[in-house]
Amino acid sequence: MKRPMRKKMLFLCISIIYPVLVSAQVSTNLYEQTDKEGMTRWVDSVYTKMTLDEKVGQLFMPIVEPNSSWKGRISGYIRNQKVGGLLFSKGTLAQQADITNYAQQLADIPLLISLDGEWGLSMRLTDAPKYPRNMIIGAIQDEEIVKLYGKEIARQCREMGIHVNFSPSLDVHSNPKNPIIGTRSYGENPVNTAKKGIAYAKGLEENGVMSVAKHFPGHGDTSEDSHKTLPTIPHNRERLEQIELFPFREYINAGLSGMMTGHLNVPALQTKGMPASLSPEVGIHLLKKEMGFTGLTFTDGMAMKGVSDQPEASIKALLAGNDIILGVVNQGKEFASVKKAVEDGTIPTSLLEEKVRKILSYKYILGANEFTPINTSTIHNKVNASSAEWIQRKIYDGAVTLLKNENELIPVRKLDQTKIAAVSIGAPADNTFHKYLKKYAPLTTFNAQSTAALSEIKALKEYDLIIISIHSNNAVDAAALQQLTKDRKTILAFFTSPYRIDNFQASFNNTTATLIGYDATDFAQMSAAQGIFGGIGISGKLPVSTTAIKEGTGLNTEKIRLGYSMPEETGLVSERFSEIESIAMEGIRQRAYPGCQILVAKDGVVIYEREFGKFDYGESPEVTDETVYDLASVTKATATLPAIMKLYDEKKIRLQDPLSKFVLETKGSNKANLTIRSLLLHETGVIAFIPYYAAAIDEKSYSGSLFGKQSAIYHARYAGAWGRTDYKFLPELISTRESEQFYLPVAKGLYASNKMHDKLLKEVIDTPLSRKGSYRYSCLNFMLLKEAVESVSGTDLDTYVKQNFYYKLGASTTFQPLKHIPIERIPATENDPFFRKQHVRGYVHDEGAALFGGISGNAGLFSNANDLAKLYQMWLNGGEYGGERYLSEETVRLFTTTKSSISRRGLGFDKPDPTNSRYSPTSPGTPIEVYGHTGFTGTSFWVDPTHNIIYIFLSNRVNPSRTPNRFSTLSIRERIQEELYHALKTIKSPITTD
């Protein structure tokens, strides 16, 4: 008789409190934003038909595994105990989706499906996108990133039919010896913890998933694990308010809707040795009365040792203010216990009704009442959508933290004056960090098994800057590292826990700059590399203190160069770019080219960078981002034109100047009065082409003509004709051996003398003019402009553009590539049986440029797409890149916007032709403001200042022959460009559900 009376008195005390709560309540955002009339109708319609078993069942959420062996048990929970929800653990996406479909079909009342996903679905599901522990999130200062992260996790949850995520953990990690919280916490600062938790929770709830903060009233400062025992929080109330309770109070005031009570003994809160999860002082007086929480309250798992030994634990939990009991040991027994407590009045029916109606209300709010079966065959791709990866990148971009930066070394500048090496400790030399460093500058990479092994890399003495990366938590400081950081300008990058920095105190003191990426994932390495060179601005702050470094430490830097991300970074959707791959692969299947590179940058970020195919058909190396292509006529706008722009900027050349002012050989010729402007616009009347090879061939070495009908003599197929090969070159012009006299490389085993340059230039100057002032595209115009550049600058074109542009940009773009680039990175172009009698590889394809020794104004440049993008981004930036000014804004504006009055051409640039789309070099949807150029070998670039876009396509379409030209027939470049403009029309938030 005494026991029921004691329970009734307990509830009486509790019920007296409830009226007081009204004035202190904080309504949740989810509740306020719902259709209350519709919610009430649905809740009433369901509740009035519920049996007592169904009402009691709503209070339970068992933990289950999503596999077929659990089907019988899950069926029993639903049919016999009428449970209101399930918390899945372990398994795969398809398994959980399948069991969710099964469970929801069995349930008469829709189930509330939950996830214990503090760092996303991958915390439980093996094939879900993997996100970092919360400590890394704690380093992020841009709360919008954290909110986007929450939205993305919510999107994935909704795809999986999940309504509730038991996250964020608002435990303040104030005890480094804590065995259970650690990296699950956002850090040791309660304000930072609150901000990150709230931002993440808002993201979840704004995308339709309930957030559940845990472990109230705070599990951060314990040295015990509540899974194994009942930990005690020994602090007084003042300390609890300042640290442990602060994030929860902020969370409640932000209108967030879920709370999990922890199994913690908190004497200052009058728990009297009971777990907080079972204490009315905590769950009702503190949480609901004082703090005003009105959302759903869940217990932590009831199988945990911190609570499992408590008698009548489920009853106590409900009387302590919890709405849903999570993961009891014996579902049948606990269900019966609570049902009996309702029947004998220990749990009043009014309290039961209040809880059940609240649970049903949130089922309506969260859309559980409108369950749509999940397609298990597509769920993997839907969850692992492009937005999932983008958020991974965003997280690490925001988290990377700069701890030291003497003389503002980072972002690294003056690339032309700095010889750089990168050494990885505990990672292979081809690691992701090194790969992304190479995107910014030509550097040499090394790897070492330990810091002590650095002493074995003698070549490091040759470098001005050494970037050392620590990839292993087992690495420790060593004398070799300490000496290296003392002797050289060094950057130390940690891909480890921040606590590991304490093991490198001496090297940390010596090094010029130190940053931390927090773990060794590819994303951490990408972000750190970009931060070092200014592809992203660094803004992270250390979320915990180490022995040497205080929490909150972190220096900011600015973005000064191209970054690397995904279309979502600029408001586009990756899926809209899928057709680009189809077109690129179509070109390979149709043998329009064996391989290609495609790069798209928007708003200063490379958002698409893909390589397709191989160097050649059949067995051949695959194209990579380091593959270097012969640019052909893209050289005009990438070498000759920048040189002219620079000289114009320096007032050394004027557009109205006559060519004879700079190229003395033209005096007295019909080229003397051609202006720089007319040459750039192709309005000189110069003929389009001359047979350059003819200048090198000894006409006396053969009889008859060079070309004829196919026969035993005319057996070499060349440019659509049949040529003979029994001719000889003029011995004073061409030699098969390199020497002091013959030093201009024409092809493998073929060298020209300087006399070749003089003779070929004379041939160009002596060509007739026709229709002067009218438009005719001619490579000869830019051959002459190259001579003007070299005359004014006093150096060759290659040296001039390297010193003034490429080296500073960190680009390996070059003429005569075999002097600087391994042939293994250069695909072959045409198999030339007539002139060079070989399959050309590493030498310029254009015959005229070849006879000029590979350095010409019309062709000869070799590059990959990434290095080209740096130059073009400089133009988009108005002449500035990497914190350096290359050209004045006025000069850039003049050259990129000027258009001929009689043709589509600009000042050295090609442009769209809106009047004749058939002959336009661009796609129909390309704006008229776009400028760029195409190349004969299957190359092109286009810069769009209206959309801030760069599009680059590189290939070796002339391999093995320039004919048939399927590349042009298929309009590969133009079709891909049109897809870009289609993608621009579908800008939307990437984090949405269907």
Automatic annotation (TrEMBL):
PANTHER family in the record: BETA-HEXOSAMINIDASE (PTHR30480:SF13), BETA-HEXOSAMINIDASE-RELATED (PTHR30480)
Gene Ontology BP terms: carbohydrate metabolic process; peptidoglycan turnover
Name under which the protein is recorded: beta-N-acetylhexosaminidase
Organism, scientific name: Proteiniphilum saccharofermentans
Signal peptide feature range: 1-24
Positions of region (Disordered): 905-925
Bias kind Polar residues: ranges: 914-925
Enzyme Commission (EC) number: 3.2.1.52
Domain annotation Beta-lactamase-related: ranges: 588-961
Xref: Pfam families: Beta-lactamase, Glyco_hydro_3
Top class in the EC scheme: hydrolase
Family per record: Belongs to the glycosyl hydrolase 3 family.
All copies of domain Glycoside hydrolase family 3 N-terminal, residue ranges: 51-361
Reactions that this protein is recorded to catalyse: Hydrolysis of terminal non-reducing N-acetyl-D-hexosamine residues in N-acetyl-beta-D-hexosaminides
Keywords: Glycosidase, Hydrolase, Signal
MF term (GO), any: beta-N-acetylhexosaminidase activity
InterPro entries assigned: Beta-lactam-related (IPR001466), Beta-lactam/transpept-like (IPR012338), GH (IPR017853), Glyco_hydro_3_AS (IPR019800), Glyco_hydro_3_N (IPR001764), Glyco_hydro_3_N_sf (IPR036962), NagZ_Beta-hexosaminidase (IPR050226)
